[in-house]
Amino acid sequence: MVRGTTAQFKFSLPYNYEELKLACVVFWQPGNNGTIDAPLPIKKTLTADDIQQYCDPDNPKELSITLSQSETLRFSDKMKAKVQLSAKTFEGTRFASKQELITVYPIYDDSILGDDIDPTPDDEDGDGWIILDGETIG
Model confidence over 28-54: pLDDT tens digits? Predict the structure, then answer.
């Protein structure tokens, strides 16, 4: 995912989305709690009524979650982030995906982001500078 952009994630489900009572997708970055105004982890909790909005009826075993521009800015590009889906069916079966690593890439030209962006978690002095590191993340 690229910081400051809208990032979409798709998850394969072992059940049709109509069978899910609850689903939760958590995005986090070890060692990074974000800021007071923009905390990490980010939790997207979906009830049965919500889940259908995140699934395509033509592909009932796939769930799509989107992080907003401000949500992707909460992550540092100096380390990988993680994501995990967990869910429960109406019959009581609980399942979870493996924790997946996400490479967080910097954005080359942050002027396209506009003036309403939050400082990066690396901006400890609050001067508004967004510190982007273009090195390869290992």
Answer: 999 999 888 889 999 999 999 999 999
> What pLDDT band is residue 128 in, cutting at 50, 70 and 90?
very low
Burial readout 36-73 (b: 16 or more C-beta within 10 A, e: otherwise): eebebbbebebebeebeebbeeeeeeebebebebebbb
| CA-wise closest residue to 8 among 69, 82, 66 | 66
CA angle at residue 48 from 53 to 85, to 5 degrees? 80
Assess contact for 38 and 118: CB atoms under 8 A. yes
- Is 11 in a helix, a strand, or coil? strand
* Nearest residue to 106 via CA among 138, 65, 66, 136: 136
